[in-house]
Design goal:
Layout (H helix, E strand, L loop, with lengths): L1 H15 L12 H13 L16 H15 L4 H12 L14 H27 L8 H14 L2
Helix pairs in contact: 2-3
Length: about 150
């Protein structure tokens, strides 16, 4: 009886694992390619680390549907991106434009790397500038030896 329930449980588990072919995003293959190309350039606003093409969030599905509608209306790729930016801001773009609001975003990594190199150079120079330990004078050597002899049993 246990074997029967184990087989039924295994069969039910495998039903959910059956692979399905992805449904096309659009009827026309040209429109589908264009939709995928545009949606790969746009960020999912829910997932934030995925493109609109790869996200499975409900909002991403809605936005893909909106893209499909805009493509159907004959809008160009630039017009579609402009529409998305006007609606959701530059954050929706994976590569935001270079403008005063995004200068820190574009220059930040280079500035941080430059600061790191400067800190490293200063550190290395200071390490080299430290004088080597001076040898002990005769008096210091005698005192050290006396201390060692006292501490030994």
């Amino acid at each position: 009886m246990k074997r029967f329930f184990a087989c039924v449980a295994l069969a039910l588990a495998l039903v959910g694992a059956a692979a399905k072919e992805a449904a096309p995003l659009a009827e026309d293959p040209v429109v589908e390619k264009r939709l995928i190309a545009i949606s790969e350039e746009l960020r999912c606003l829910v997932c934030q680390n995925e493109s609109l093409a790869g996200s499975r969030a409900d909002l991403a599905n809605d936005l893909r549907r909106e893209l499909r509608t805009l493509i159907g209306q004959g809008k160009t790729d630039a017009q579609i991106r402009e529409f998305m930016v006007s609606r959701y801001g530059d954050f929706v773009l994976y590569r935001p434009p270079v403008k005063p609001q995004t200068w820190l975003l574009w220059a930040g990594p280079f500035v941080l790397m430059l600061v790191g190199v400067i800190v490293l150079v200063v550190y290395v120079r200071r390490r080299r500038a430290e004088p080597a330990a001076a040898p002990l004078t005769e008096e210091e050597a005698r005192r050290a030896q006396a201390l060692l002899e006292v501490s030994e049993p």
